[in-house]
Amino acid sequence: MTQRDNLKRIAILAGDGIGPEVMEQSRRILDWFMAHGLHEVAVEELPYGATAYRTFGAVLPEASWQAARNADAILFGATGGPEYDAIPAAARRGGNLLRIRRDLDLYANLRPIIAIDSLNEASSLKNRVLKGVDLVIVRELTAGLYFGEPRGIERLPDGSRRCVNTHSYTSAQIERVARDAFELARGRRGQVCSVEKSNVMESGAMWREEVEALRGREFRDITLTHMLADNCAMQLVRAPAQFDVIVTDNMFGDILSDGAAMAAGSLGMLPSASLGPIRADGSRQVLYEPVHGSAPDIAGRGIANPLGAILSLGMALRLTMERPDAAAALDRAVRAALAKGVRTRDILHDGMTLVGTHAMGDAILQELERG
Q: Hey, which residues are catalytic here?
């Protein structure tokens, strides 16, 4: 293969609110790895969000969109906030995150939840509940309630209003995300829990049937269980260590992963990876982003927790750049920095760290230098 064939193209969309602040720390760490043996990586920072709209008249300018489409990995910061919300709705829809996910067909969202001992006090859960928590929620990302048609709000003849959202899945959409969950479980503890509401929803009943059929055809080595979404919500705060891989639909995955964040302390700790289809050469496009939002109330103050973004970079090192050694080194550096007290008890409260965004980046870089 030529050097150009080997080149990994990384597009950075920092976005709104605290996005640029947390992304700055990820970029510092990425630059460190590029200076220490991570070769054949091309990084491009692209305008996106409210700032891009002010300058270019588009949330996602065409040049940014084309670069993102051609990238192997997209590092995404955050979106939303008062300035973003003031943009006309049509302009927001033309470049929002849902559009990016849909148009790039980023259908499988991986959200790892890991309890780190040194952060147990930041969690609302007891230490005995947190012991051994290491799970991944695989959320279907491009179908279901968030994309189904018809949808909208209408005025009825009697003057009242009616709202409609459609929860729709095809067997192919269920099968492909379930396949990713089974494949993931093969490299972990070999357990998949499929979550739906088959007791009251036809879509849930079909989801269960399709996942069960796929397991029977291709994944008999994997242990499959089924759980209703409301029970799963309870189990994630009662005994989260029971789970290995959870696979579920778009809406339930959104809700359950936010609840499961308490095992890690906060949304500020959670990375994610949104995977596209496998290409002919075996690669796939992936968007990496922290699960937290734009936190406009603390934007610009230098106190945003960058760990979700930094750990998302770790996922990129492993999945896209195929450097598990670098990903493991970054994970060790994060854990070492936290274990040495580069935090306060409130580090994860509302996505903030009192030591400062930049200080956390400094601490992790110091640990990387120590090896």
A: 146, 197, 230, 254, 258
